[in-house]
Amino acid sequence: MNEKTEEVTEEAISKDEMTTVVIPQQHGYESPNHSTAPAAGGHRSAFTELMSRKSKSSLNTPIKNTSTTRPPLIFSGRDGLGAYLSDPTAFPPSRIIYHTPKWVVIRDMYPKSSVHILLLPRDGTKNLLHPFEAFEDRAFLEEVQSETKKLRILVAKELQRLYGRFSAQEEQKRRRRIEESYTGNEAGAKEEKEKELEGLQGRDWEKEILSGIHARPSMTHLHIHILSKDRYSECMNKRPHYNSFATPFLIPVEEFPLKKDDPRRYPSREGYLDRDLVCWRCGRNFKKKFGELKEHLKMEFEEWKRE
Hints:
Elements: E1 21-23, E2 26-27, H1 46-54, E3 68-69, E4 73-75, H2 82-86, E5 96-99, E6 103-107, E7 116-121, H3 131-134, H4 138-163, H5 168-181, H6 189-198, E8 209-214, E9 224-228, H7 239-246, E10 250-252, H8 267-270, H9 290-306
Antiparallel strand pairs: 1-4, 2-3, 5-6, 6-7, 7-9, 8-9, 8-10
Helix pairs in contact: 5-6
C-alpha cells in the first residue's frame, strides 16, 4: 500500500493551527543568538544560554543589525514553517532558538507539552519531502539524528531548570552535595565522597523527552519534534493532538531507517489518531473522553514534576 494514496481522515493538528506566517517588508531583529535576557525567576533558560554561546560561534550565519526593505513574504497554512527557513532573522528570540546554515530551531507555536521545540532542516533537496523519503538518505538521516541528540540535551537542561526544584530525585542529589560540603576533613575522605557522588546523578531529564516525526505530517516542510513527555499544554485540546504524541504515530528519529513493512508507514490503516485516549503515565483508558483526560493530565503533570 502506498502511503501517498491513503485517504486523510484526521489531522494531528487543527486547521486553526495552520497559521499564515508573514515576513514583513521591514525587519531588523538582531540575531536571536545574541539574546541574553534572563528567564523568569532570574535564571536564564537553557535556550538563552545556548544562544549566548552560539553568538560567538562561526556556525551561525552572520547577521548585520540593519533593517531591510522588500515586499512581504507570505507563507500560508501548511507552508507556515517555510517562513522560518526562508529568513529566520525576521523573527524574534521568542520564536527562534538558533539557526545555522543547516538548521533552524524554533519554539512550536502551538506546543503540545510544557516544552516543545521543532528542528527544521534547511537542505532544499530534503525539506519538502515526506520524512520517510527524506530519511532514505543515510547521510542526511545521520545528520538529523545527531542534531536531535544535541537538542535532547538542551531540552533536558531546560526541564531541569524549570522543574528541578520540585523533583525528589534532584532533592536527594542536593542533600548529598550539602553533606559533602560539611565532610571530608580526614585524609582520603573527600576522594571517597566524590566517588560516591559520581554514582548519584539525580534525575535523568533526558528520559523525560520525546523526539520524532509524525507518520503523516500536517505541515509541508520537514520538521522534527523534541518535547517533554508530559503532554500538558493549553494547546493540547483534541483527541488527535494527544494521540499524535501518545501512539506510534510519533516515530522516534533514532528508529529510522524503517523496514518496508513497518506498520507505522500506514498510519490511516492503523488508526492511530482514532485510538482510545490512554494516559501516558498511569495507563488509564479514557476511551474518547478528552475533557476527562485533560483534567487528568494536569494532575499527572504535577506528580511527574515531583518524581
